[in-house]
């Protein structure tokens, strides 16, 4: 599962030995549908739809991997459908915002960004999104990779991006940090050493879980698989 404004193409070139990689475009992203009903972008609906798709293409037993927004979805999904998941890999993923006040503030920030996207276009969003501090380390990527990333972000419908922020953004995601002990499957949390926010989340939330390893990748920021794809 890819990150916000990304698509399954983010996994181009990624090989997981012994596994077939099934790349899913979440609703409104990449080549997926863009329904008019904004309820399709809500977390409960997205999880049900993802389960329908995953069950159809992967069967009743599979491993699940997600990056950023995809990691948030994968985590909540694993709490709902954990009996089906053999292994869980979370890359730069959040457990939600514990403070009600801080979560509300993030929701208001997401709503403001959604309005700005609707007032502009995908190209404007891709430019603005690439400038946020969490992606600063992506300046080390080759021009070709940076351009592909920009084009994937710019390709998205402003309506779909705004609907995603309103329906399943960080301000909407329920806090699940108190439920991590429910994850019974072997798990791996990956963070980039340059991404101090999510490395701290990995250290504080996942490194002490009995079935979870936390791997910190040197020289990488938020998007580890893109910045440091090799072994």
Description:
- It is a single chain.
- The radius of gyration is 17 Å and the shape is globular.
- The chain has a four-stranded parallel sheet, with helices on one face.
- The chain is built from eight helices and four strands.
- By secondary structure, it is α/β, with parallel strands linked by helices.
- Helix 3 runs antiparallel to helix 6.
- It is 42% helix and 11% strand.
- The model has no long low-confidence stretch (mean pLDDT 96).
Give the N-terminus to C-terminus distance in angstroms: 20 Å
- Give me the side-by-side strand order of the main sheet: 1-2-3-4
Radius of gyration: 17 Å
Number of beta strands: 4
Major sheet size, sense and barrel closure? 4 strands, parallel
Number of helix segments? 8
Low-pLDDT residue spans: none
Backbone structural class: alpha/beta
Strand content: 5-15%
Helix fraction by DSSP (H/I, runs of at least 4): 40-55%
